[in-house]
Amino acid sequence: MRNYTGPPVTGDDFFGRAKELKKMGDLLVKGMSIFIPGPRRIGKTSLAQEFMRQNDKAYRFIYFDLEGKQSLLEFCEDLLREMKSKQMIFKDIWDTLSGMFQSVEALIAEVRLKKLEFPLKDVMRMCEDILKRLTKENMVLVLDEFSDFLFHLSERREVELFLSWLRSLRHKNYIRMIVTGSVNIISTVEELNCMNYINDLPPVAIQPLTRDEVRDLITELLKEKNILLKGKAQSFVLDKLTDGIPFYLQLFADKIMDEHENMEITDLKEIKPFYLKLIEYDYPAFIDMHDRLNRYLEEKERKIAITLLSYISDKPLALKDLFPYIEESTTDIPFVHKILKRLVDECYLSLNKGIYSFVSPILREWWQHKYEYEREMNDNQ
Ligand SMILES: Nc1ncnc2c1ncn2[C@@H]1O[C@H](COP(=O)(O)OP(=O)(O)O)[C@@H](O)[C@H]1O
Ligand SMILES: [Mg+2]
Question: Which top CATH class is 11-197?
Answer without folding.
Answer: alpha beta
